[in-house]
Design a protein that fits this description.
- This is Ras-related protein Rab.
- The protein has about 210 residues and is of the alpha/beta class.
- It has one domain (about 15-200): P-loop containing nucleotide triphosphate hydrolases (Rossmann fold), CATH 3.40.50.300.
- It contains seven helices and six strands, in the order βαββαβαααβαβα.
- It has helices at about 30-40, 80-90, 105, 110-120, 125-130, 155-165, 180-200; strands spanning about 15-25, 55-60, 65-75, 95-100, 135-140, 165-170.
- The longest helix is centred in the C-terminal third of the chain and has 22 residues, at about 180-200.
- The relative contact order is 0.19.
Length: about 210
């Protein structure tokens, strides 16, 4: 994935529907590996922290519509909050990722949800009036393959997801478990939400 900070401008003359996804979550939770697996079906075992943000895209067909899925991999470190704030803007979906081998990942979900809401909707007063503008968010409980190192129980993950009304997927970027289903389900919800608007713009549908 190539590094850049400017979101590409949609070109509807291609008849593709453009979708913007961003990742969020604790550093080291596997956000980059999940996106690489979806884009390229590959996995790197070494950990290299994302500096600021990384970008990749994939053309993907969902429910008869060809999507250009633009994916922003956002660094989870506090010093990159301004970068995240800029790139949350206009996103259709958020991949909120936790690490099943780190108990503190679950404890941080509340803070990440506050950040997403504030960046996407503004102040708490504005948030109450604009809930329909929130992006679709999925909770990816990653590193499901590391069963002997697991610190987050299925019940704890399910409780956290239910609290924020999030769709929960246990995933493994190493084995591919749950990755394609999580992305496809998220994209299907985005398609359902935007189908009428895309049709009005001339996006090709079957």
């Amino acid at each position: 994935m190539s590094k850049q900070l400017q979101t590409p401008i949609p070109d509807f003359s291609t008849c593709l529907a453009w979708v913007k996804l961003v990742s969020a979550g604790f550093p080291g939770s596997g956000k980059t590996s999940l996106i690489k697996h979806f884009c390229d079906s590959r996995f790197s075992a070494g950990y290299q922290p994302t500096v600021g943000a990384d970008y990749g895209f994939k053309v993907f067909r969902v429910d008869g519509i060809d999507l250009r899925v633009n994916m922003w991999d956002l660094s989870g470190y506090p010093e990159y909050l301004e970068v995240r704030n800029e790139l949350y803007s206009g996103c259709d979906g958020v991949l909120l990722t936790i690490d099943l081998t780190e108990a503190k990942s679950v404890a941080n979900i509340d803070a990440w949800m506050r950040e997403i809401a504030q960046c996407c909707l503004g102040s708490p007063g504005q948030q109450q009036q604009q809930q329909s503008s929130m992006p679709d968010i999925v909770l990816l409980a990653n590193k499901a393959d590391l069963k002997d190192k697991r610190q987050v129980t299925p019940a704890d993950a399910a409780k956290a997801a239910a609290k924020h009304k999030l769709h929960l997927y246990e995933t493994s970027a190493a084995t591919g478990e749950g990755v394609d289903k999580a992305f496809r389900d998220l994209l299907q919800r985005i398609v359902q939400r935007n189908r009428a608007a895309w049709a009005a713009r001339g996006v090709k549908m079957e």
